[in-house]
Structure formats: C-alpha cells, structure tokens
Amino acid sequence: MYDHEEYRVMRRQHLTKIVATLGPSTSGHDEIEALFMAGADVFRLNFSHGTHEEHKARYDAIRAIENKTGRPIAVMMDLQGPKLRIGTFGDGPITLAAGDKFRLDLDETKGDQSRVTLPHPEIFQALSTNATLLLDDGRILLRVAECGADYADCVVEIGGPLSERKGVNVPDVLLPLSPLTPKDKADLAFGLELGADWVALSFVQRPEDVAEAQALIEGRASIIAKLEKPAAIEKLDEIVALSDAVMVARGDLGVEMPPEDVPVLQREIVRACRKQGRPVVVATQMLDSMIERPVPTRAEASDVATAVYDGADAVMLSAETAAGAFPVESVEMMNRIIERVQVDPLYRQMIETRRTEPDETTADAISAAARQIGETLNTSGIVTYTTSGSTTLRIARERPMVPIISLTPRTDTARKMALVWGVHSARTPDAHDFDDMINTATHQAKIDGFAEPGERVVITAGVPFGTPGKTNLIRIARVGGGS
Fold it and tell me: Global pTM?
C-alpha cells in the first residue's frame, strides 16, 4: 500500500501522542496498520482481556508494520492488577435500599438479602469503622458500622440492584495488597519475553509498589504507574520520581473520588510529571461515544483538548479502538483535535507559562539552551543524541516550539520515545566524531522531512561520543553543509 520512502517522510504533525488499545475490533495486520496511518504512536495490549496467543499475534503485526515503515512504534502492556469482587447469590440479584443493614464476610456460603462473601481478607484487615465501601463501580455505597478480621457490618447509604461478582472499591483505606497478582506476574513474564516497551502497572498505592515491579522487570521495559487509587495521590511526587511515566487512570479515580475532583487531580498529576520530566498519559472515556457513533460529543472533544492544553504527553483510546465500531475514525478525530489545539496561540502561552526551571545540571542547562537557541533562530528542529532516552526527555520537558528529533543506536530507546511529547525518534549509529555527528543529524532531519538544504538545526550530544549520561555539547549546523 505504501512504500518505505513514503513512510519515512510521513512525519507526525501532532505533538501530543496517541495511544490506541488493540482488541477484537483491531486484531489484524490491516486494522492495526490503519490505526498507525491514522496517527497512533503507541499500541496498548490490555492484559485484562485476551489470551497470550492473541496478544502475540497483535505484537507481531505491530513489529511487521514497524519494519515496513521504518518508524519506531511503542508497545504498552497493561497489567490487570488485583480485582476485588463480591461472591455469588443463592437466588439471583438483590436490591438494597438506603438504611438497610448488609454484611460482607469470608463465609463462602452463597449470599442473600442480608450478606454476601467478600473473599479478600486483606480488606477486612485494613477496614475501620466509618470506612466507605463502593460496589458495582460506585453505584452502591456502604458505610462500615462494625468490623473484624473476617466481617464488616455495613449500613447502606446509596442503594440499588446488586448482582454477583460485582467489583468492590475501598477508597478510604491503604490496602495491604501487592499490585502484582500471580496472573500479573505470569503476564509480565510473557510480555517481557515478547518485547513490550512499556509496562502499565495497575493498583499503585505507594512508591513501594513501583519498586516491586522494578525488581521483577530488571530494566527490560519502562514502567508506567497508573494512578487510580486516592492513596497514590498522597504519595504523588514520590511515585512520579520512581516511575518512568505516569497514567491518569480516570475511570477508577472517578469511582473512588467525587467526579468533581478528577479534573483537578488530572491537572495536578500532569503538572507534577512535567516538573520532574516524566511522560504522562491521560486515559479513559476520552471519546467514549465513538464506540458506537462516528463522531464524538462536543464535551468529549473538549475533554481531549483540555488534556492537550494541560501539556500531557499522550492521550489514550481504550474501548474506542479495542471494541468500538469506529476505531480508525476515533484515532483520526483525536489527531484532528490535537492539531487544532496546537495552532491556538493560547496553547503556546499555556505551555510556556507552565515551563519549569531546569535543574542545576549540565544536561539540563544544555537542554534549556537548545530550546532557546532553536526558538530564537527558528531552526528546523533540535536533534538530540541519546542512549537511554534521558537527554530526549530533558528536551521534551522544555516543550520547545521546534520539533525534537531523537537519534539513538538502541531500538528499545527509539520505541520508548514514541510516547513522549513532540519527539520524532529514529535509530542511527552513534557518532564517532564531530563531523559524523553533524552529518548524521542534518541528514536525518532532511530525510525525515524536518529540514530543507540550507536550513539550520540545533544538535545536542555528549563527549566522549557513545557515553550514556554525558550530554555536554551543543552545536548549530546547517543542512547540506556549513555551520
């Protein structure tokens, strides 16, 4: 359909990246390629659904598209995490009314109008009087009147119908649960062997949860901490510092917190990530109506735009692309919204006013200077040589008005950078001297459609060449020769 050279000059115009979830609607090579062509930068494999064989087939299709296009594509595996659910009822669903008494316990007997099993002793260990329990995505609210090691006697504050195996949320309590269940550990081992670039970690409550995952991953992939528990917000800065990236998982946050708090928290999380130079993804129900309709509501379009105005690195589609009737149209719509926001003068003003001061390091000073030079001289781009991606992340934190072209000899780094705001990543050999550095940088800027002969680029690198963490050099070079 497209030859290699056509792909190479197909530079993305959007700065905020697009994450598309794959599923039944988008399992085949052609469907996934269509999402990529529509603007998807990162593909999410949701391990809450699907078999390992299905995920492998999707992964293989992604890598085939990557080979065909010559463009690095990031793959995110999203772990399910602990799922807290009630047990079953003997005579079918029940209906609870406000003021009713209702017990949750460890008794495996089928439930009735007065009680039901909650097969999670960790919850009872952590509960206290007056704690809140939410059932069925928050539709039913229970208040704990009395509790012990194996029971909780509750009063119904908000009632309604309740069927078996509905989910349970405990917003007021730090639960003594690992974010990694035996299923997650098996999925993680499979995903790492497959070659996932990012691991999205569910049920993060504290920094130690991220550290636990790091010990298992051992640097084979980068970690995205999904912030979906109120307890995590209390340790926000520590979790951000320990993670490689963060996801604002608004679905679960919206269950465990008042809906009016979620937009405020979204902005707070984005700001914390920007300050520490960590990529941040805004997720859940962004274009939800496009699961069934070819166009979103105006409110949904505004929701995507708000995340872009706030400076998020990426916005994510879930069921819209995984199971919806209009997956390609959803990506195209998200792409159009992002590009429309980017040409708004207010967008640039908001990005600039939220820029954080660089740290007192050589690399940060170089990155800040590169942005200023690029904008002052209106260069065609900032070309950054990187091994681990840290230099590129520093440049991206500056949110420059000119494109960021990230050059790395490592395939895994090139793929990971596909998630980062404004970054066009490419795999190239390490420079071995100054002339090689300039020639490679200017050539890549040209062939990827960023610069014409005679135009200038800013280059950052480290000397000695090929030494990670040594960004200490800045150079202005002209495409086609001269500097």
Answer: 0.93
